[in-house]
Design goal:
The complex is a heterodimer of chains A (about 90) and B (about 180).
Chain A (H helix, E strand, L loop, with lengths): L1 H23 L3 H23 L1 H8 L3 H24 L1
Helix pairs in contact in A: 1-2, 1-4, 3-4
Chain B lengths: L1 H21 L5 H69 L1 H9 L3 H40 L3 H8 L8 H14 L3
Helix pairs in contact in B: 1-2, 4-5
Classes of the chains: A mainly alpha (about 90), B mainly alpha (about 180).
Chain lengths: ~90, ~180
């Protein structure tokens, strides 16, 4: 059941990134905002990946869990964006 | 709850993929439908995730409960096994220690113990006296028999009492007994 709830949140992340892609396709300004958001998220992701020990201490989770969370987030964004762009 | 979870998960995936692949992005109302279905899909996925998390927590609590009950049962069995082993050991010790068992069973007072000891000594002394009397009779018979054959006193004493002639205490005692038995002066 634990795997099921993790999978559902993962799917929710994928759908959310597809939704952001859909929002970006509505207007050039929206696309620019989403691009800015994606860039900020990517920088944040990179910082979290580099400062994993500090962030894990701050969030009070293990480094392994933090890395798994980051990779799952990246994968969900990539899958969601990929599905939207390829459809 | 499980059925609801599976339906919500399936619906989320269907609402995510179906409009994106089936509808045209260039048509206005198709695009609106896509947006709506994506929003609904997010809601379905999040709801399914929450339900799954709730069920996972409940399952974990059930597992902890089951583990606690199992530990209790194991503890109870271990305690009862230990107690019964102690009882068996005590019974075995009581059986294997008959002196203590007897003492406890009899629990005689001191006077009775002394009396029983006296009786036991008397019983032990009686056969000894009988035996010495029999020996004396046998020696008397043998001495008279040898005397009738014409044996001398010293030789008879040596044969019957096993003591050679001399001034020893044993010889004197044997000589005295010989005289008493043969009624010699």
């Amino acid at each position: 059941m634990r795997a099921m709830y993790l999978a559902n949140y993962f799917v929710a992340g994928c759908i959310a990134s597809s939704f952001l892609g859909w929002v970006a396709s509505l207007h050039p300004m929206a696309a620019r905002a989403i691009t800015f958001l994606a860039a900020a998220a990517f920088i944040l992701w990179g910082l979290c990946w580099l400062l994993d020990f500090s962030i894990s201490n701050w969030l009070k989770i293990s480094v392994n869990n933090l890395q798994a969370l980051l990779l799952a987030g990246l994968a969900s964004i990539a899958i969601g964006a990929g599905v939207f762009l390829c459809s | 709850m499980q059925l609801k979870l599976w339906i919500l998960s399936g619906t989320a995936i269907a609402l995510w993929l179906a409009p994106l692949t089936a509808l045209d992005k260039k048509v206005g109302w198709h695009k609106s439908i896509q947006g709506l279905s994506l929003g609904a899909a997010i809601a379905c996925a999040v709801s399914a995730g929450n339900i799954a998390r709730k069920l996972a927590d409940e399952a974990e609590i059930e597992t902890i409960k089951t583990r606690a009950i199992t530990a209790d049962v194991v503890d109870e069995i271990a305690v009862s096994a230990y107690v019964s082993q102690q009882q068996r050991q005590q019974e075995a010790e009581a059986i294997l220690n008959p002196v203590e068992h007897l003492e406890r069973a009899l629990a005689l007072p001191d006077a009775e113990v002394e009396r029983s000891e006296l009786i036991t000594q008397k019983q032990l002394a009686e056969p000894e006296a009988e035996r010495s009397e029999n020996d004396e009779e046998r020696r008397a018979e043998r001495a008279l028999e040898l005397k009738a054959k014409g044996w001398g006193k010293a030789k008879i004493i040596l044969e019957v009492w096993g003591v050679s002639k001399g001034g020893s205490q044993k010889y004197k005692a044997a000589e005295a007994e010989y005289r008493r038995l043969t009624r010699e002066p």
